[in-house]
Request: fold
Amino acid sequence: MDPIAGILLIALGSIGAASFYVPFKKVRLWAWESYWITQGVAAWIIAPWIFALIFVPSGELMPIIRESPSSAKLMAAFFGLLWGFGGLTFGLSIRYLGVALGQSIALGLCAAFGTLIPPIVAGENLFSSTTGILTMTGVAITVAGIAIIGYAGALKSKNMTEEERKAAVKEFALKKGILIAIFAGVMSACFNFGFEAGKPIENVALAHGTNPLFQKNPSLIFILLGGFITNLVYCVFLNIKNKTYKDYLSGPGSLFLNNLFFTFLAGFLWFLQFHFFGMGSSKLPAGMAVFGWSILMALNIAISNIWGIILKEWKGAGKKTMYVLIVGIVVLILSTFIVKLG
Reply:
């Protein structure tokens, strides 16, 4: 057990997760539904299998899948299916609010629900020990940080003209974006429930000699398959409704290759958060491991807001707004240390 190494590994995943939407800036002439499901093919289908084949002992992946309890595989996929609604609307929240504000609201709620519900369902009394109290405090600070960043977003909307908002985020829509982000945050918590349901799969993987650092990789295959199904149905519906299925074949071959490269890059960056989360959580002490989810979400939010500054999403928002935003980021980073202390 090495908590510091665990948090550093989770932080590496956060860099990938917070950065995944950036390559979409290079996608040209494709509708949202076209590039969203293309990155999903990379993130939710290709990447889980590649990483599992690489990091599970040679020749052991298929036996692990065969021997894992059917109930664990089905429940992991079921929670992945529910998470898919969160992942789908998560992309929409970024579309309407931008990388910084969209990720902040959605991931903050995801952190709170994903961290607290599993131990509550398991019947644990989080107020019965110093560890539980400190962890609850860390989660509360996370939520406070989200509220501060949300306030910064409201100030941004108030202080900027409509033209400035559209220049920063092309389809900026504050009210619609916040409602979508709230729904995304609640449903995205189901990913952590998928990890809980997939623990029997992890046990089988460990029995087959899998390094504990990579014990979650086989579970990811099932969780992400469920999420892919949800997103595929919706994106195909939009492709047909909007006739954007033509995106994949229209234009020169160089356009298709360009868009395929950047959407796949986005997908692999997104997947890295859970690969490194699996590695990092395996390094955390038993009493702290369940709260690795809160650490991942808080770091995602902090880094995504740094990207928001780099991408000039806050340009013209005013000094007061930027001060409030920075305070919110600092509070979120602080929350990870409180959780670690617990």
Remarks:
- Residues 14 and 300 are 5 Å apart (CA to CA).
- The chain has a mean pLDDT of 84.
- Residues 3-341 form one domain.
- The chain has 15 helices and no strands.
